[in-house]
Amino acid sequence: xxxxxxxxxxxxxxxxxxxxxxxxxxxxxxxxxxxxxxxxxxxxxxxxxxxxxxxxxxxxxxxxxxxxxxxxxxxxxxxxx
Length: 81
Hints:
By secondary structure, the chain is mainly β. 7% of the residues lie in helices and 36% in strands. It is built from one helix and six strands. Strand 1 and strand 2 form a beta hairpin.
């Protein structure tokens, strides 16, 4: 069991849209990724997904509304959404 420093891990890469695995939890990978521009609308049938904004902000669009996730905020999206 070791701690993960998000700033250090994010400093190790510069490319966007290339998730990096930094851990595992209950059989699922914990990944870091840098976004830039639009994120393709999609869903996961078998797993929930956590979005945590470390720097900047991110607009999450749903079928009938949108939500801004600001720096320091997170949102858990249930599987199938």
